[in-house]
Amino acid sequence: MPTPTAPPSPLTPSQISDLLHLARLGSTTPLLAALSLHAKTLSTTPSSILVAAIDPDNGNTLLHMAAANGHTATINELLLLLASAVPSPSGIPSAASLNAPNASGNTPLHWAAINGHLESVKALVGAGADPARVNRAGKEAVFEAEGAGKGEVVEWLLGEGRGLEGEGEGGGAGVGVEMVGEGEAEGDGGL
């Protein structure tokens, strides 16, 4: 599988780096403010800036950074922006952005799962993240979580997660943006 390349971005490398840093820290309010400021400056929408903010070196998105570190409140806000970026009849965020692979083929769901961030996993799957998506190593998020000893995530993905070869409920994407863990304490794990 070829390494994904980020499309040309209207943002400078420094702006992308700053946005990724805010997502990594789970600094939701400053992140949303920065997205809005860049959108206003570039005469576009915050959702367009969100989609354009991809690390050109490794393909990581703002969702990757928030998911890797278990910042569910940030994830939920980014999911709302994605839902407005590419409206669909179901209200599910753009599958291309939600399931965007980085250079290793890992999606935000892979990173949330491998780091054991169950509430973030739930939010991503609830919004339509594909639990059956494989990375460049050929592993689904559940296998990465199992290898990392994240039993609670493995159990949830196999029991409640949708889209895992006949496992769980529904066998497909979520039915809308599900807000999960609004009041949870955000951890410092991940990246």
Search tags:
ANK repeat; Serine Threonine Protein Phosphatase 5, Tetratricopeptide repeat; 191 residues; repeat; Ankyrin_rpt-contain_sf; elongated; ubiquitin-protein transferase activity; mainly alpha; Ankyrin_rpt; disordered N terminus; disordered C terminus
Structure description:
The chain is mainly alpha-helical. The protein has a single domain, classed as Ankyrin repeat-containing domain (Serine Threonine Protein Phosphatase 5, Tetratricopeptide repeat). About 50% of the residues lie in helices and about 0% in strands. It is built from 10 helices and no strands. α1 runs antiparallel to α2 (about 30-40) and α4 (about 60-70) runs parallel beside α7. The longest helix is centred in the first third of the chain and has 14 residues, at about 30-40. Mean pLDDT is about 80; it is low at about 1-5 and about 165-190. GO terms for molecular function: ubiquitin-protein transferase activity.
